[in-house]
């Protein structure tokens, strides 16, 4: 953190934003971890709890918006302060979206808990979630320390998540082809996988914001995108 | 010369021709006390350059170097070089009166003469021999007041005293008075510090319009004002120029820590 403002209440305002964001980050992390655990264990009680927690993030985002607008109006922030405040608004949106995605996974737990889950695929999903959660955790660390280097490396690692998601997608399609009775459960898992992949994207967004807040510069626009599931079709029966 | 070298030379020439005034190693002393230390700063043509920095850092001192107003202070001594269109304004053959017609000045407190609005404006052009007939004088009054955005407000009372106008109108009258002699550069030392927000907004709007035809250097203690009206910003501290650059960059991502601390309100 840079040194203190002459007007000390200005620092209180900025500290409020940072503190509230790390609280939101903690909640978002926990929601995602609990939702995935609930999916693995078919634990509807835990899923229900995740769904109810989403409200905390909605409120957090709203509080940060209100505070940020008020600080801009009162103090006409400049330079690093301005970037910090604009960054807070963006990070709050990303965390709120992460919460939504966690909630969506939890809802599917309730929908599919009675169905037979293909164990191997659930494990694949678990692995994907671990990666996304690591990204989320590290990006929150990068924010806490305003570290542009860490932020940059997080963004680069998103490719890995995309690759694993793509292979999981392929496996799920194959599974559905093999036995149409798998379709309902697999579709839910497919959406869960997509949600987790999106959580990785939000971690990447946050990484880009942290980089900007810390340096005043934007990372280069496009990182290589490896989600080709948009054009993927089911393998023809008997191929492979 | 190779093509690349030619291009470089052309770019450099264009860059050079965009510079209206240049201070080179400008140092200023008030008696024994040094107020400016080797300041190197370019003022670009048809743009607004803002000078910012904490009180006493030398903004006004530097501004006064640009039209030799420091000459009027007995104990003040200026070293280094200041050029206007490449010509050293401290050279012996320079006519200071003519220089101040080319480089006009607007002060912090509106200071109209205790005369009519009309007289306030024709005074300068008359002593510089730019107008003599009644028609010429009418023309310069109207043109200057229009440019200063004041004509419609005062056209029916040109013979009334300038001191009877509101503070904001008085300041725009002073700007009209500065414009009347057709200067090339206008120096403004905290021109809005005695004005309310509406009058300030009008002066800022005016500065933006004047930039098309004039080169402007403004000292301001309002960071927001510098950010709003200028294209270039120079940050002074304890008599040194610490950073100079594009205004947009200076207020979003300055290079220098002192600038960063000053504009974000973290000073000493
Ligand atoms: N006429 C003067 N006589 C003696 N010292 C002066 C005079 N004008 C300015 N100074 C000194 O020079 C320094 C710079 O002053 P100035 O240029 O007015 O700063 P700024 O405009 O940034 O507030 C200050 O230390 C001030 O006290
Ligand atoms: Mg001053």
From TrEMBL, chain A:
Keyword terms, alphabetized: Cytoplasm, Phosphate transport, Transport
UniProt KW Cytoplasm keyword: yes
Major place of residence: cytoplasm
Positions of the PhoU domain: 21-109, 125-210
InterPro entries for the chain: PhoU, PhoU-like_sf, PhoU_dom
Subcellular location: Cytoplasm
Domain of life where this protein originates: Bacteria
Described function: Plays a role in the regulation of phosphate uptake.
Subunit structure: Homodimer.
Entry similarity comment: Belongs to the PhoU family.
Protein name: Phosphate-specific transport system accessory protein PhoU
Species of the source: Hoeflea alexandrii
């Amino acid at each position: 953190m840079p040194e203190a403002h002459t007007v000390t209440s200005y620092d209180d305002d900025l500290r409020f934003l940072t503190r509230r964001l790390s609280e939101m980050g903690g909640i978002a992390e926990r929601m995602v971890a609990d939702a995935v655990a609930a999916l693995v264990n078919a634990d509807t009680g835990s899923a229900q709890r995740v769904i109810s927690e989403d409200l905390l993030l909605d409120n957090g985002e709203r509080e940060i918006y209100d505070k940020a607008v008020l600080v801009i109006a009162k103090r006409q922030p400049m330079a690093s302060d301005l970037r910090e405040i604009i960054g807070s608004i963006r990070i709050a949106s990303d965390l709120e979206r992460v919460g939504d995605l966690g909630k969506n996974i939890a809802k599917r737990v309730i929908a599919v808990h009675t169905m037979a889950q293909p164990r191997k695929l659930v494990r694949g999903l678990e692995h994907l979630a671990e990666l996304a959660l690591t990204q989320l955790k590290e990006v929150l660390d990068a924010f806490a320390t305003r570290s542009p280097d860490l932020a940059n490396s997080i963004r680069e690692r998103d490719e890995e998540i995309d690759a694993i998601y793509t292979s999981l997608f392929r496996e799920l399609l194959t599974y559905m082809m093999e036995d149409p009775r798998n379709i309902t459960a697999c579709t839910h898992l497919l959406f869960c996988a997509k949600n987790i992949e999106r959580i990785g994207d939000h971690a990447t967004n946050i990484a880009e914001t942290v980089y900007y807040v810390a340096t005043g510069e934007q990372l280069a626009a496009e990182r290589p995108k490896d989600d080709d599931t948009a054009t993927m079709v089911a393998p023809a029966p008997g191929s492979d | 010369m190779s093509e690349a070298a030619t291009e470089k030379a052309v770019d450099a020439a264009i860059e050079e021709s965009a510079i209206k005034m240049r201070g080179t190693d400008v140092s200023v002393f008030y008696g024994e006390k040094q107020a400016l230390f080797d300041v190197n700063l370019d003022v670009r043509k048809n743009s607004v350059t803002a000078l910012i920095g904490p009180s006493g850092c030398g903004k006004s001192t530097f501004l006064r170097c640009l039209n030799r107003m420091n000459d009027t202070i007995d104990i003040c001594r200026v070293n280094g070089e200041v050029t206007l269109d490449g010509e050293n304004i401290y050279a012996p053959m320079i006519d200071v009166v003519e220089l101040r017609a080319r480089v006009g000045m607007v002060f912090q407190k509106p200071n109209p003469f205790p005369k009519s609005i009309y007289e306030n404006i024709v005074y300068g052009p008359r002593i510089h021999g730019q107008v003599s007939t009644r028609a010429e004088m009418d023309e310069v009054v109207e043109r200057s007041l229009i440019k200063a955005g004041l004509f419609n407000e005062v056209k029916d009372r040109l013979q009334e005293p300038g001191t009877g106008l509101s503070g904001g109108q008085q300041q725009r009258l002073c700007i009209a008075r500065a414009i009347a002699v057709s200067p090339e550069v206008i120096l403004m030392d905290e021109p809005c510090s005695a004005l309310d927000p509406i009058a300030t907004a009008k002066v800022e709007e005016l500065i933006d319009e004047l930039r098309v035809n004039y080169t402007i250097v403004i000292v301001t203690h309002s960071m927001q004002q510098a950010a709003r009206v200028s294209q270039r910003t120079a940050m002074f501290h304890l008599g040194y120029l610490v950073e100079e650059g594009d205004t947009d960059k200076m207020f979003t991502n300055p290079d220098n820590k002192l600038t960063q601390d000053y504009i974000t309100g973290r000073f000493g």
